[in-house]
Amino acid sequence: MAALEAARALLVEAGPQAVTLKAVAGRIGRTHANLLHHFGSASGLQKALAKHLAETICATIRDAVIASRSGIGKPRDVVDLTFDAFDREGAGALASWMLLSGNEDALDPIVDTIHDLVVDLEEYSSDAQRSTTLALTLMALGDALMGGPLAKGLELPRTAARDRAEQMLIEGIAAGQVTQAD
Predict the structure, then answer these.
(1) 128, 137, 181, 182: most buried, per Cβ within 10 A?
(2) pLDDT at residue 123 above 70?
């Protein structure tokens, strides 16, 4: 939908505070009232945007995981896509904005979509895989919010969190292969 793509563009360009019904309406040539009727409120728009972001991002990550499993891709591809989703694509800023504004239920679509991705990839029955998914997601979110300043303060390269996440994913894959071979 054009409104969600416009909201996503505003999110990336100017941050979550710029994603208003009025701004989105202006981007797509609609009226504020038209979007208010469709989404119900600014909170409804944010929730729809969170769902849209989660679905498009998880579809990309799903493809990277499948490519990695088939030997075409690498674990680093999965890490980079996850970190980029929270940083460059604005999911981290949107999530923190929604939490700070008391709109916690707007995170439900993100959590549900990640859950569905893990189930779809047949990794839900494994505590280790769910734990790895949790850690990777939280690392990406934390990196999006304060990774640059923290890495600098600790005198580490800017890629330190991604590098650690990649190592964790490689170790998780190796552990899963050992378990499957037993």
Answers:
(1) 137
(2) no
